[in-house]
Give the backbone structure.
Amino acid sequence: MYSKIALASVLFQAARGQQVGTNTPETHPALTWETCTAPGSCTSNNGKVVLDSNWRWVHSAAAGSYTNCYTGNTWDATLCPDDVTCAANCALDGADYTGTYGVTATGNSLKLNFVTGTNVGSRNYLMKDDSNYEILYMLNQEFTFDVDVSNLGCGLNGALYLVSMAADGGLSATNKAGAAYGTGYCDSQCPRDLKFIGGKANVEGWTPESNSANSGTGNNGACCAEMDIWEANSISAAYTPHAGPASLTICDGDACGGTYSSNRYAGDTDPDGCDFNSYRQGDTTFYGPGMTVDTTKVFTVVTQFLTDDGTADGNLNEIKRFYVQDGTVIPNSESTIPGITGNSVNTDYCQNQPTVFNDTPSFENKGGFASMTAGLKAGMVLVLSLWDDYADSMLWLDSDDPATGDPTVPGIARGTCATTSGVPSDVESSQASAYVTYSNIKVGPINSTFAAPATKRSVLGAAAGRPQRRAVL
């Protein structure tokens, strides 16, 4: 939701390099997923995954040279005196997915280890083929997957989400790596920690982070719409639309807004989003170990993107959530906060939440559901990641945020984790063996991706702006 810091090892920090290295062959792990037309009627797709370029080794592109272009959290001044020269001088290399990054794909399952050697976490994308990301069109569709978060404690985030990236990763004359090497990332935080953006390096104005030996920020940021289908650990979970441009927009300095700028709301994107976190919405016994959704066991997450006319040409006006565990369909929890009703993200919910919680209405201010409609209609790329948070220690997900806030004030408490938890150095030491597993990814029309007992199905009445009734689980 707030920050997606790309933290990797000293020798394997990199990003959108112009050239392609040959030291390590790039072999994308195979990952199958399904498209469905009705429950039990699904077709398997032979997809792949690719590691984001910000985790990769970037080195001199000169023949026979493997001098690092980026070491620790600083650039080589000779190879990278400016953005354009750096992109021309540096090559992005292939990845040892399991050995170096802890990324293992088996059939329809993707396991992401947290600490592997000196590498921490990873960000990966679903691919259509070896040169292109899979583009998902989710209006009037549902997205379903199984997840195991039992090994994710406080301060960790196993995140599965959609962003408005280009299918080819921004392949161009100045970016010869493209999607094959995980380039082109953007999100609603307009991240400025990316080493290369738009085919150029981000070296100009680069400032190493004081609390991270591997990260820094440059002048430029990469902005676009973001749909957080799933951000979670074993303690708390949230799903959150973030308004923004339907394709990569490059921003400059503090005008970017988001996590990396002094003015969080200065940019064109919505950094906060309209989140549904059951704990934050008042139900403190719904999600967690031994609770209604028992996070000690695998469960299925169903997210439905409903439109005002029940077609893919309509306008997004509601995002619904269901869970399935041990053969039982579990509706999302109801908000118990006075002034915020319901168990889904819709226009009324997103207008009422910032008022009641005394938050900035950034989702509405940056375009709200109209913006998300444009992003989903243009198609978005699926991201599968595991990360810890150098900006806010993940308190926004699983603790009190701000840490000095009164947890009895609506909107402050988001989970049971202590406000002292989530410090990356502690998390990386105490939870080094943590992992998340995503599996059984399915996409299809509403109510097509899972079997549900007929008694569990219901019909939603016409919501504001919805001219017809439609069957939804």
About this structure: The helical segments are 83-89, 97-101, 347-357, 362-365, 368-378, 395-398, 424-430. Confidence is low (pLDDT under 50) at residues 1-17, 454-473.
